[in-house]
Write a structure and sequence with these properties.
- With 301 residues, the chain is an alpha/beta fold.
- It folds into two domains: 134 residues, Arc Repressor Mutant, subunit A; 140 residues, 3-Layer(aba) Sandwich (Trna Endonuclease, Chain: A, domain 1).
- The protein is built from eleven helices and eight strands.
- A five-stranded mixed sheet has the order 4-5-6-7-8, sandwiched between helices. Strands 1-3-2 form a three-stranded antiparallel sheet.
- Helix 2 packs across helix 8, helix 4 crosses helix 7 and helix 10 packs parallel to helix 11.
- The two termini are 44 Å apart.
Length: 301
């Protein structure tokens, strides 16, 4: 019996005001699917839960699953479970119960036959707790919504991180393969360029991190090193909803100057791309410090 896909069922939710465009909208759907008896995810997981509980059929079985839910992400040994829960069962009975739960896909086997962990699904443990936690040690539905909020923001952070990294790759690829071939097109997308600037075939171009030898934690998104008297590019990339601030500009300038010094760069262009644009005082800072900028999404195509 395969484990249900909560992600798929979430998008099929019957929640009447379903809205996946905002954080609160997503949290409301998750709350409905987890706690409300009409939730299809809750109903699907209930089949699994009842299948397993029928084999165990007592409070100890529920305590075991609840215990693993509370220690989600950790592998716990059978001896530890028995000790922490103070289970009063016959020798060998716990092993049978654990095997039954694993077979029912309610819990997962750890790295050995003696360790166990909660299933990786981020919804199952909340469904289980909403059904059984109150009879064991109390339950507050607000806990689940708070946990979903933390999970959402954690995943949003990861998404933004991957989105930013991909944007860096796209712009680096643009500088590496296209910009010098279509110089007029791409220079027109950038503000505050030196009059003699033009893109060239760069000696190397990558996302730069200072060598540990320098004992400084310096990272810039783009470092395109040019030969001869051409401009090398030291750049920052932001692909997000927030505008680029003066504080960020100041931090970037400090890093860019360090990179220029560490890498013994001659002529250089400090460049910032921000898909959401810039605050007015940020642009003033750029002009004062000879930093080029762009928010033209052509760079991301």
């Amino acid at each position: 019996m395969p484990v249900p896909s909560s992600n798929f069922l979430l998008f099929q939710s019957d929640y009447p005001d379903k809205d996946f465009s905002t954080e609160s909208g997503i949290l409301d759907v998750l709350d409905f699917e987890t706690i409300d008896k009409r939730g299809s995810i809750r109903g699907t997981w209930m089949e699994y839960i009842h299948s397993a509980i029928d084999r165990i059929n007592d409070t100890n079985g529920k305590k075991i699953v609840l215990y693993l839910c509370k220690h989600k992400g950790k592998k716990v040994t059978r001896d530890q479970i028995e000790k922490d829960l103070n289970l009063d069962i016959k020798q060998g009975e716990l092993e049978k119960r654990m095997k039954a739960l694993v077979k029912s896909d309610i819990i997962e086997q750890g790295t050995s036959n003696f360790s166990y962990q909660a299933v990786g699904d981020n919804i199952f443990d909340k469904v289980f707790r909403s059904i059984y936690q109150e009879e064991i040690d109390g339950f507050d539905p607000k806990e689940i919504k708070n946990e979903y909020q933390l999970l959402y923001r954690k995943l949003q952070g990861k998404f933004n991180q991957y989105k930013g990294a991909f944007s860096e790759y796209v712009i680096i690829n643009c500088f590496r393969h296209r910009a010098f071939k279509q110089n007029d097109t791409y220079t027109a997308l950038i503000n505050n360029l030196p009059e003699d600037f033009c893109f060239v075939e760069y000696e190397s171009i990558w996302s730069y991190s200072a060598s540990p030898v320098h004992k400084k934690d310096i990272q810039v998104d783009i470092f395109a090193k040019a030969n001869n008297n051409a401009y090398s590019i030291i750049g920052e990339v932001k692909n997000r909803k927030a505008k680029f601030s003066v504080k960020e500009a100041q931090l970037f300038l400090a890093k860019a100057l360090e990179v220029k010094k560490l890498e013994n760069v001659g002529k250089s262009l400090f460049f910032v791309f921000s898909s959401a644009g810039f605050f007015k005082n940020t642009i003033q800072f750029f002009k004062k410090n000879n930093i080029a900028w762009s928010n033209d999404k052509t760079f991301l195509e």
